[in-house]
Amino acid sequence: MSSMTKSPNKYEVVKDTLVLILAGGRGSRLHELTDKRAKPALYFGGNRRIIDFALSNCINSGLNRIGVVTQYAAHSLLRHLQKGWSFLPQERGEFVDMLPARQQIDDSTWYRGTADAVYQNMAILRNHYRPKYVLILAGDHIYKQDYSQMLLDHISSGAKCTVGCIEVERKIASEFGVMAVDENLKVKSFVEKPENPPAMIGRPDMSLASMGIYVFDADYLYEVLEKEVETPYTSHDFGKDILPRTLKEGVLYAHPFSRSCMGRNTEGEIYWRDVGTLDSFWQSNIDLVSEHPQLDIYDQRWPIRGNPIQAYPSKFFYKKANCKAVDNSLISGGCVITDAEISHSVLFDHIIVKEGSTVEYSVILPQVTIGKNCTLRNCIIDRHVVIPDGTEIGVNLEEDRQRFRVSSSSKVVLVTKPMIEKLQGKKIAHEEHLD
Asked: What PROSITE patterns does the record point to (predicted)?
């Protein structure tokens, strides 16, 4: 990698950088779980939300000028940002600003893609924030990264655009944008979701995939966005439209995630997860309860901040001598567990589990009540759900498909409040008919 005559000063670089977190996505592969909330606002790990990872990475990296671009079902996300992320001192030029879709082009045009979301806020960037560099992040991934190292590499390489990249198995690389690079990490080719992904040099089973993280020289970003918006038949997308343009102009470089990863597993491997499906969301949460989890949420060297609920301590009542009690689980505050068996599960705050019930390998979101003598296995239970006494979920998947949402792998069952209300409505109607 070529170097500049003078090494960049980290303090000056982060001070001159604006972070834009793109948090407007719906997350349609999560189905009913994101019916009323944007994917970045989804709960994770017992008392955090997904967007807390990107925000915490920014704070830990010294990047305290942050704009969060929102669009779909943004109420819970905005409320979370207001309550949990309003501590930065504005008088020092530090902030977490909210940038909702403003229909700037016309009355019916919302953000049309990731690039358009930045383009529609470009006047604010130029006239109000005035950054020298712009770091663009997705708000819906789980990982720990020192973005300042990526910024320093961007400047040292002489790039105008740098894309964060991660090594993935070639057999699954078709789900990503894939690139080939030279020995200086200059990108030589970039293909969005290719059928036959290019392999890494010397590693035929691996490919280099885009993480959806970009650093731009601000002036160059404005220039390329103005060109893109005038291009016919565009998707208004960074991966599909902007990166190919920067590649053609010879200013695109790659930044390997391994250079800036701050969260490795017990084997020393980098950790990055897209929790965009029911299976991946469930698995990433369940992994946290293991003795040696892939992600260490207790590591205070790179803390993941959020807006923890100020709840009373959880209470556990066990009167039965033969009850298994709680094993390998995360239990947040304000929970009341009575003669119930909880194993390999994540319970968020204010969960009630009544006597005789069993919860195994399940993710229970806040303010859920589980009745007496219930059995829950391999479940995701959405917020505010009340599980009736004697309910079995995850025991008979054929029955579950008629009542709830079963994941594509037939491994995980999603239960939401409308599903339970519909089920109870059917039961009430049937009972009234019998009467």
From this structure: ADP_GLC_PYROPHOSPH_1 (PS00808), ADP_GLC_PYROPHOSPH_2 (PS00809), ADP_GLC_PYROPHOSPH_3 (PS00810)
Q: Quick one: pLDDT at residue 292?
A: 87
**Nearest CA among 361, 335, 339 for reference residue 348:** 335
The Cα angle at residue 20 between residues 242 and 79, in degrees rounded to 5: 135
Confidence of residue 429 (pLDDT cuts 50, 70, 90): low
Alpha-carbon dihedral sign for residues 25, 83, 380, 405: negative
Find, among 130, 167, 153, the residue nearest to 215 by Cα. 153
CA-CA distance, 81 to 130, in Å (whole number)?
23
Q: Quick: pLDDT tens for 115-142.
A: 999 999 999 999 999 999 999 999 999 9
Listed range (255-269, 355-369, 416-430) with the worst mean pLDDT: 416-430
What are the residues whose beta carbons fall under 8 Å from the beta carbon of 110, sequence distance 6 or more? 71, 101, 103
What is residue 336's three-state secondary structure? strand
Does 192 count as an annotated binding residue? yes
Q: Which residues contact 149 (CB under 8 A, 6 or more apart)?
A: 259, 260
b/e code 44-68 from CB counts within 10 Å (16+ = b)? bbbbbbbbbbbbbbbbbbbbbbbbb
pLDDT of residue 426: 64
Q: Which residues contact 432 (CB under 8 A, 6 or more apart)?
A: none
113 appears as a binding residue in the annotation: no
The DSSP bridge partners found for residue 217 are 133
Structure tokens at 356: 């005789």
pTM for the whole structure: 0.92
Q: According to the model, what pLDDT value does residue 109 have?
A: 57
- Inter-residue contact 99 to 139 (CB < 8 Å): no
Contact 295, 271 (CB under 8 A): yes
What domains does the chain contain, in order, with CATH numbers?
Answer: 10-287 (3.90.550.10), 315-424 (2.160.10.10)
Question: Given this model, what pLDDT does residue 111 score?
Answer: 79
Tokens of 179: 């690139």
Q: Other C-beta atoms within 10 Å of 426: how many?
A: 11
Taking residues 42-53, report their average pLDDT.
95
∠ CA 337-342-34 to the nearest 5 degrees? 90
Tell me how far CA of residue 50 lies from CA of 197, 234, 314, 367, 433, in angstroms.
29, 30, 24, 18, 45
Give the mean pLDDT of 256-261: 95
> With bands split at pLDDT 50, 70 and 90, how would you rate the model's confidence at 106?
low
210 annotated to a ligand binding site: yes
Find out whether 111 is annotated in a ligand binding site.
yes
